[in-house]
Amino acid sequence: MNNILEVRDIHTFIGQFHILEGVTVAVPQGSITVLLGRNGAGKTTTLKSIMGMTPPTRGSIVFEGQSLVGKRPYSIAQMGIGYVPEHRAIFKELSVAENLQIAERHKGDLARKADLIFELFPDLKRLYHLPGGSLSGGQQQMLAIARALVPDNRLLLIDEPSEGLAPVIIEHLMSAIRKLAEQATVLLVEQNFRMASRLADRYVIIDEGHSPASGLMADLRQDNEQIQRYLGVA
Amino acid sequence: MAVRRSSIVAIIVVIVGLLAFNLLKSGGNLGNFGITVLSGLFQGMLLFLVASGLSIIFGLMDILNLAQGTYFMLGAYVAYDVQHAGGVVDLTSVVPDPNLRFPIAVAAAIVVGAALGVVLERGLLRRLYSRPIFQLVLTFGVSLVIIELIKFIWSTTPYSWTEVFGLRTQTFELFGQGFSVYRLFIIGMGFLLIIGIALLLRRTRTGIIIRAGVEDSAMVEALGINVRSVFTLVFTLGCAIAALGGAVAAPFLGASSSLGNAFLLQGIAVVVLGGMGSYEGTAVGSIMVGLAIAVAQDAAIGTSFSVLPSITPMLVLILILLLRPSGLFGNTR
Amino acid sequence: MMASKLTRTLRDNWLLILIFIGLLVFPHAVGWLTGSSPMGVPRGDRMIMRGESVRWQAVLIELFILSILAMSYNLMFGFTGVVSFGHALFFGVGGYVLGLALEYTQMETGTALVMGILGGVAICGILGLLIGLVSLRLRGVYFAIFTLAIAEMFFIYFGRLSLTRAEDGFSITDLPQWIDPAQNRLNYYYVALILFVLTFLFIRRLMNSPTGAVFKAVRENEDRAQSIGYNTLNYKLLAITLAGMMAAVAGMLQIILNKKVGPEILGITYTVDPLVMTIIGGIGTFTGPIIGTTGLHLLETVLREATITLGPIVIRVTDIWGVLLGGIFILVVMVFPQGVVGTWARWTARSAKSEPPA
Fold first, then answer.
1. Local structure of residue C354 (DSSP, 8 states)
2. CATH 1.10.3470: does it fit domain C16-39+49-286?
3. Which of A89, B269, B300, C357 gives the lowest tally of CB atoms within 10 Å of its CB?
4. Distance from CA of A101 to the nearest CA of B (A)
């Protein structure tokens, strides 16, 4: 199996709190892998540790054969990783256009990707010159994902895309994520188990700073005991 | 930019109120009124030169640069020194024409301000991003060292500008009152700078990055942009502009060691009034505080309360902090 | 029972007690060593303050004053995490109130002294409370700005106020004989020493009490302290009020020593000094502010006459003292943020902990 990203036994502190106490995540090339777990288990911190925003103190992170540990976030991103943070962290004072322009890594990135982006999220074309803050929650989420599509990223880290959105919009987002997974590998954090189970090929469970279980999503769907134990949903 | 309507109303009310008060007080004397307005705009532009850096640096890097006023003061000393005979650099024999020496003096001030800005950001502040209180304390400490160095190099005696050059001495007449062309020149330059920086922020990629960084610099970095190099750029520019302000102010205010604190506090008053990190707020706030000081100066003439203009910025600051700490254009964060 | 408690107190504090005794006998010891009288030189029915002993008494009185100021600053900044850039306000207002009471009221000298002291401490306490009430709700940086603005406003205002003779200030002439440092400096030395010791003991007692524990909790993580159920605002108010009152006492000692009240006691120097001294000595420690003040003050006293020769340029240390002080300060902030005391404590703790390599 060819893994585009291998996170091995990372430990991360935030302030004096030991958040990750040995998390291991393998993401196969071309897959959609989801991190599952309760609130506060360490899923977001795992993504931030990969991005170098909360650098791990121990363990290794390897992307396409290169170590990410000790690199600054901007150089990690430049290696071809797109990050879509939780809470739709778009720039509210910037227009939709500027939100996309800022993500360009080379001149012309946006021009090349505009067709793809507007095909996935037709709304953005209409809203192109409005400030990000005036968009609805779902539109902001679309913009946040679109922003990660502007450069040629080979891995996308997406944190809780469905959070606080209406079911219709979640459906739209799911089909968009499925479509963009044809171009890039996706590592997803998702609380919504139904969405996660329909979308992902593989899962990793994060629980209290550890990663006790991982495998094929198809297997997890059958394993009610596992689901009950770590996710508390039936 | 979502500006609340109440802010716009407040701005108009304050400005109109200040002007009306002054017009009434001068008994409809348009000449006197004109001088007040012009001197208010002049002071406002000088303030803008200190406050714009203060505001953008705070918005982007979360550092309140307490050395900003000191850079202004340094600019005044450098410009004074280059323009006049004697001192550290004496150009009178190389460039005998004072009209030609003045742009050189201003350029020298900008270069010195920028250089010390790089040193402060790269050499010191960068290492303290995990300890914000110490950053604040450090900028305070750096300003002390610069003030002490200035006192050592140029002594503690204030200098008043003695060199005569064209722009400084020419006047024009309006409503029977003489106005200095130089003031008009500074006001024009200030407006150009306000527009120039606005264009930089709106139209260039660097500007988009700066505005995005004011909102969330960690996210900008996660998009693959080396935010710290933008920090250095902004900090350096901020210090250079402050030094420019000191340099162009020197022909009027001279060079003295009290300039630093005065302009720092006035600058902070502007930034808090406009809303920390808001560029539009800084521009509008500068003009408002400048006018307020000029009106206070005019009002205090001949009264026993001659201290009023000096403490006006502090009063503005205290009032704003009490009434509306987020400022006119501030987002509630 | 009582005896064992006493012996324990003595054992735990032997060094401090030794230093205290040293300070008690200091004027006499200097006098004995240099053959000068600790009382000064009598001339007629007056005393002239001349000789090594009285000279060193003045140095130490200044030291006590600055230490009290630094300790009070440390109570806010070091122990509670409140950054103020306006501490000179309390120092100066305390000084002005006492000066006004002594010189501008019709009260009898002794009464004026007592009323001035009580009034000054009370006014500074109220001032601290008011400033805290209106600005402590704001983010830390706004509080720092607010205090800077208020202090600067007072500085400018008193610099222009003709009632108190503006920039020149006024002299203190009407002072009880027994405390007059130009007549009975030794008495004044003991007054300052006792206030210095009391301040130290008070802060130590406070910080070892449950209230002090909350102060530290506010410094470490205000949100957490709040979520545990403490009204952190009240504790910060208490810290700034107490600090303001102590700074007022320091300011009063200062104006009596100099027998002069002027706007310079409201100047930024008296904000900078405690800040710098506290950080260099070690923030959030009991002895740090004192060690920082002592070290730097003695250094300045000793180096005042010294010169540095750089090739053809000869620089007097006094002229660049501010630069040197600022340089030391920046160095400490960058490299030893715990200051002298904190760094020392870490080193000794590390060498005590480190075991022989396995």
1. P
2. yes
3. C357
4. 8
